[in-house]
Amino acid sequence: MQKTTSSISNNISFTRGVPALEALPTTLFSECLQAVLAGPDGKTVLQYGHNGGYVPLKQLLAEQYHVDVDQVLIGNGSLHLQDMLTAQLVQTGDVVFTEQPSYDRAIKTFRRRGAKVIGIPLALDGVDITALEEALARYTPRFMYIVPDFQNPAGVTTSREKRQALAQLAEKHGFYLVEDVPYRTLRYSGKTLPLLRELNPERTITVSSYSKLISPGIRVGYLIGPRDIVKPLIALAEDTTLAPVLPTQAAVLEFHKRGYFERNLESLKQLYAPRLQAMISAIKTYLPGIDFAEPEGGFFVSITLPQESNYQHLLQRAKEQGLLLTDGNGFFADHLNAQANQAHTGDRFVRLPFCALTPQEIEAGMQRLAELVRA
Amino acid sequence: MQKTTSSISNNISFTRGVPALEALPTTLFSECLQAVLAGPDGKTVLQYGHNGGYVPLKQLLAEQYHVDVDQVLIGNGSLHLQDMLTAQLVQTGDVVFTEQPSYDRAIKTFRRRGAKVIGIPLALDGVDITALEEALARYTPRFMYIVPDFQNPAGVTTSREKRQALAQLAEKHGFYLVEDVPYRTLRYSGKTLPLLRELNPERTITVSSYSKLISPGIRVGYLIGPRDIVKPLIALAEDTTLAPVLPTQAAVLEFHKRGYFERNLESLKQLYAPRLQAMISAIKTYLPGIDFAEPEGGFFVSITLPQESNYQHLLQRAKEQGLLLTDGNGFFADHLNAQANQAHTGDRFVRLPFCALTPQEIEAGMQRLAELVRA
User: Fold this and answer.
1) CB contact under 8 A, A30 and B37
2) What's the gap in Å between the CA of A85 and the closest CA on chain B?
3) Closest CB from B109, B243, B245 relative to A248
4) Which of A137, A348, B56, B107 has the greatest count of CB atoms below 10 A from its CB?
């Protein structure tokens, strides 16, 4: 056995997927803000802006995604863009599909805007296509929300074959794919797979953000989609928030221009890759025999505890032992199905964000968790 | 007659109420951002934030408004706060009162969230209290939206007596007063009147922003209200946008701490006061005999053209003459009432924002307008 948990007296938090504090580029970002405000666009970024974001950053994103600039909307973080997109696409009672489990705040957002949210079981290589086809026989969703790379919460990456199947089903049944790809460039190993947008651009709306790649506090997220979606969405964004937050958007562009983005991304990978390895090792050591997706990037690993484990009142018991967990049920859109399907149930589902913890904290946390769930 | 309009070849825009470009404090704000990012909260403001805004700025606002810090929510501009407030308070079909005319984007926001918006005629000293009482005999609104100081669009300041009446009616009939006060501190002459909040704090929700006082591009707006309103609204804000934009909020606090806020406010008054005077003089010179509120501050003067003037297709004809106007109808919530009431009708209503124009441009613009509406 390793050192006891008492050697780490602080709480260990396996709750939110936040960047490591030490990874936030205060000096580089400050330089960029200064350059923007002293530069030719200094006045522009302090004035009211239009057009769905800081135009030169929209241009950069248009180049990166091989789309036209009028297909890009930059907003105050991707969650708010998803909120407005849902307001635009969904009438009360419309159906939205998510992977099951899926990002809890996205599920909540779709519901708040009146959607009936149906979860399609997620396997270790992406959503269960047979289950999706069965669901499509009963419902045509307005859209399906997918996190194809290093999924939040499960860490799953959708396989190439399943991406192809999703692109085809969207076409066949006439629904949109909303792909949320904030972790995509944080790949620590393996090879990048195509975006859903690359497989079916007319049916895909891509949302992403700089929260995991530069800073969450700057709230710069973006959305790329077909013109007939993006144009009215820009109008709705302007009606809702009047204008974008320009200084931080312009500083993100400067961050790219100066080559800081690549340099920062490399540092993040150096910092996070060993943490992911520590998490995978700790699961295998302390909770042997559990099936889980071993991600090649991103922020999250998740496990489903075995039926026979002691998961009753786990959150409360963990908290008393200085281990903070998120309620697994929030990631399951469809509680009833989740109960019926023995493979996944929220009570036994534990998300394990690893980026903001040292390998030592990760190991200590998993040791605590293993003790708590011992039958 | 003065110089002809041909001496100014550019378009003159009487459309949006934007600050003068030369008034945007690029250097001072950049200093503040640098100080924040180099300071003890540098990492904090780049990380995810909670609690409805940057806590030290919430503390400053709580002191300024004599409330507790948990009564303050800072968001990405006041329009979005009003959008979320409406989502929280209004069910589809609920009634909201506005002054008539009122801020067009606010009317649109309330409607988008399902409200039935009813405009109460605005006199030169605030809303018509008799008309308000008549409307209250028929409806109890969820809230009444009021811009008590230098109203957008009319430039009207609500008198002390009418503020008192509003506070009492809100109490008697059980509705909220949403007072929007972004221009309040931009007073160029005369004496400050009490906030509605000071007269009835339990029934008043105050919204304001730094858009007119520092910069619109930073999107820092705030809301002050009773705890039972603000607490769930903070939860809704967190669900909607996940986290606030922290660097600009922290820089606003630094702007205050360094004494830049007072200094900047004084410069704004020096710049804008002569522009207001130029607008008032130009109206009296070129459109003599029109009744209008002569504001003592803010961004707007508005006029209602006489019945006998030539106001048909005014926007289009003005545009052809290089004069950009906003459609007056957008400021009238209730078109039918507006038609019936000869005193106010959107077709004849012209808003005249003056801050971003030089006195010369203002005079030339008003001269063009007078020529266009000559019967």
Assistant:
1) yes
2) 12
3) B245
4) B107
A362 neighbors A282 (Cβ within 8 angstroms)? yes
Chain A contacts of B216, Cβ < 8 Å? 46-48, 243
Q: Tell me the per-residue pLDDT of B250-296, one tens digit each, with 9 for 90 and over.
A: 999 999 999 999 999 999 999 999 999 999 999 999 999 998 999 99
* Stretch 178-207 of chain B: residues touching chain A, C-beta under 8 Å: none
Interchain CB contact of B105 with A (< 8 Å) = yes
Helices (H) and strands (E) in chain B, counts: 14, 12
Judged by CB atoms closer than 8 Å, whether chains meet at B37 and A27 is answered as yes
SS3 of chain A: helix, strand, coil, percent, to 5 = 50, 15, 35
Judge whether B162 and B127 are in contact, CB under 8 Å: yes
End-to-end, the C-alpha distance of chain B in Å comes to 19
Binding-face residues of A in 243-282 toward B, CB within 8 A: 243-248
pLDDT at B9: 58
- The answer to whether A34 contacts B30, with C-beta atoms less than 8 Å apart, is yes
- For chain B, say whether A53 makes contact (Cβ under 8 Å): no
Facing A33 at nearest CB: one of B25, B33, B219: B33
pLDDT of residue A336: 54
Q: Which of B367, B20, B25 is nearest to B218 (CA)?
A: B25
State mean pLDDT over B322-349.
78
Percent of all residues in chain A with a pLDDT value above 70, rounded to a whole number = 95
* Domains recognised in chain B with CATH numbers: 5-24+262-373 (3.90.1150.10), 26-257 (3.40.640.10)
Contacts of A30 (CB under 8 A, 6+ apart): B33, B34, B37, B38, B42
Q: Which residue of B has its CA nearest to A240?
A: B80
Cα of A6 vs its chain's centroid, Å? 33
**Residue holding tokens 């709750």?**
A15
Interface contact flag, A242 B29, Cβ < 8 Å: no
Confidence bin at A335 (pLDDT 50/70/90): low
How far, in Å, are A89, A107, A309, B241 from residue A95 at the CA level?
Answer: 11, 12, 35, 23
The chain B residue lying nearest A16, using CA atoms, is B48
Record: contact A243-B216, CB cut-off 8 A:
yes
Confidence of residue B315 (pLDDT cuts 50, 70, 90): very high
The CB density around residue A174, as the number of other CB atoms within 10 Å, is 11
User: In this predicted complex, what is the ipTM?
Assistant: 0.94
**A98-117 pLDDT per residue, tens:** 999 999 999 999 999 999 99
